[in-house]
C-alpha cells in the first residue's frame, strides 16, 4: 500500500495551482453548458475547482457489522482504498437499535461549507430484528453525528423525521440545497393506513420522502419527494455536477427500483426540484441486482464519475465509472484490484491534502 509523502503532496498542490491559473482564463458558460463544454472541447474547466483535492474518504458499514467504518484512498486513486483504524469501527451508535447502516458523509453547505460535516445513517441492527418487523415497526429516526474536522465525531443523536404511519426510515442522505439555503434530507418509507396503527396489514409502495434542516436537529414536516407508485423506490443519491458552483442547476440522482432490484440515474438541469428525466426511458437501468448507489466525481478527471454499486447478494460494493454519467448506458465496471471487498452501502467524499494527512495521522495504520 502506498503512502503519500508530504513532498509528493506539495508537488501535487503546485501542479494543480498551475492548472488553476491556466483554467481561470477559460470562462464557464453557466451550469447547463458546463457539462457539454467538457465533452465538446475536452477542456477541464473545473480543474480550478478540484485542483487541491488529494484523495477520498469513504464511510461504509460491513455486512454483519452495522457500524461506521472509514476507508482512505491511496493518494488520489479513486479505486484504491485501505481500511482505517485497523479495520475497527470509527463510530458505534449507542442509541436506538445500536446499529447503523448506510452511513453517508454530508459536506456542509452555505456558511458551513468546508467547516462542518455530518454523518447520517439508518437506525437498524438487523441481527436484533427481522426484515418484516424492520419495515412495519422499524425506526422512524435517523442517526446523526457531526464534526468540524472529519476526525472528531460528536453529538450522536437519533432524530425522528417521519410520521407514525410510516413503517421505517431507510438510507437517509442529505444535500445542501443552494436555492433553499438549507439541507435537503431524504429517505425511503412505506406507509400504513391510520386505521392500522400496529401496521399489521398491507402498506403503500415505498416512496422517497424529504424534509429540510439547518442543523440536523430540527426538521420540517416530511413530504413526498419521489413516488413511482406502484414501484418501490429506495436508496436515493444525488450528485451535484459542479459542486463548487452554487449557481449550478445540474444534478444527477441515482436510485434503486426496489421492485425490480435495479439501479438507474435521472438528470436535471433545472435544480433539485426541476424537471428530472430518465435517459433511455422508463426501463433503462445501469445495473441489476444491486443497491445503495454512491456516486463521486473523480478528483483528477472532472468529466469522470465513479459509482459504487452494492452487490448485496454477493461481495458488496463494486466500483463502476462513466465519462457520460447522465446516461443509463455506458457504465463500465472499474478495476477492482485495489478496491476492498464486502463494503456495504455508504458514501465517498473527495478531500484535500490537509484533511487527507490529518485523517491518515489519526486513523492510519
Ligand atoms: C482543506 O480543507 C479544509 C476543510 O475544508 C480547510 O480547512 C483547509 O484550508 C483546506 N486546505 C487547503 C490546502 O486547501
Ligand atoms: C471534539 O469535539 C468536541 C465538540 O466540538 C470538543 O468539545 C472536543 O474538545 C473535541 N475533541 C478533540 C480531541 O478535538
From TrEMBL:
Residues spanning the signal sequence: 1-23
Record-linked CDD domains: GH43_Bt3655-like (cd08983)
Entry keyword annotation includes Signal: yes
InterPro entries: GH43_arabinanases, Glyco_hydro_beta-prop_sf
Keywords: Signal
PANTHER family hit by this protein: ARABINAN ENDO-1,5-ALPHA-L-ARABINOSIDASE, ARABINOSIDASE-RELATED
Name the record gives this protein: Glycoside hydrolase family 43 protein
Amino acid at each position: 500500500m502506498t503512502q503519500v509523502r508530504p513532498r509528493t503532496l506539495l508537488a501535487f498542490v503546485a501542479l494543480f495551482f498551475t492548472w488553476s491559473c491556466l483554467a481561470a482564463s477559460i470562462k464557464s458558460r453557466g451550469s447547463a453548458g458546463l457539462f457539454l463544454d467538457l465533452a465538446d472541447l475536452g477542456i477541464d474547466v473545473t480543474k480550478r475547482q478540484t485542483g487541491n483535492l488529494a484523495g477520498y474518504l469513504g464511510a461504509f458499514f460491513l455486512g454483519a457489522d452495522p457500524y461506521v467504518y472509514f476507508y482512505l484512498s491511496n493518494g488520489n486513486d479513486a479505486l484504491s482504498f485501505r481500511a482505517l483504524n485497523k479495520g475497527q469501527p470509527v463510530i458505534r451508535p449507542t442509541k436506538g437499535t445500536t446499529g447503523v447502516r448506510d452511513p453517508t458523509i454530508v459536506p456542509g453547505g452555505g456558511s458551513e461549507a468546508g467547516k462542518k460535516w455530518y454523518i447520517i445513517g439508518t437506525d437498524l441492527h438487523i441481527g436484533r430484528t427481522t426484515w418484516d418487523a424492520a419495515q412495519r415497526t422499524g425506526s422512524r429516526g435517523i442517526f446523526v453525528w457531526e464534526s468540524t474536522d472529519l476526525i472528531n465525531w460528536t453529538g450522536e443523536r437519533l432524530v425522528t423525521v417521519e410520521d407514525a404511519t410510516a413503517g421505517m426510515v431507510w438510507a437517509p442522505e442529505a444535500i445542501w440545497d443552494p436555492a433553499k439555503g438549507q439541507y435537503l434530507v431524504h429517505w425511503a418509507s412505506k406507509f400504513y393506513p391510520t386505521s392500522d396503527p400496529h401496521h399489521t396489514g398491507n402498506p403503500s409502495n415505498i416512496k422517497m420522502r424529504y424534509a429540510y434542516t439547518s442543523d440536523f436537529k430540527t426538521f420540517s414536516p416530511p413530504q413526498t419527494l419521489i413516488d413511482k407508485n406502484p414501484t418501490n423506490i429506495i436508496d436515493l443519491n444525488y450528485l451535484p455536477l459542479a459542486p463548487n458552483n452554487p449557481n449550478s442547476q445540474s444534478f444527477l440522482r441515482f436510485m434503486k427500483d426496489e421492485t425490480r432490484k435495479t439501479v438507474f440515474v435521472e438528470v436535471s438541469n433545472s435544480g433539485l426540484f426541476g424537471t428530472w428525466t430518465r435517459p433511455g426511458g422508463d426501463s433503462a437501468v445501469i445495473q441489476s441486482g444491486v443497491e445503495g448507489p454512491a456516486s463521486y466525481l473523480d478528483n483528477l478527471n472532472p468529466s469522470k464519475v465513479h459509482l459504487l454499486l452494492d452487490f448485496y447478494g454477493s461481495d458488496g460494493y463494486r466500483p463502476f465509472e462513466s465519462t457520460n454519467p447522465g446516461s443509463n448506458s455506458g457504465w463500465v465496471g472499474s478495476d477492482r484490484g485495489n478496491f476492498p471487498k464486502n463494503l456495504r452501502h455508504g458514501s465517498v467524499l473527495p478531500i484535500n491534502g490537509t484533511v487527507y494527512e490529518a485523517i491518515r495521522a489519526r486513523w492510519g495504520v
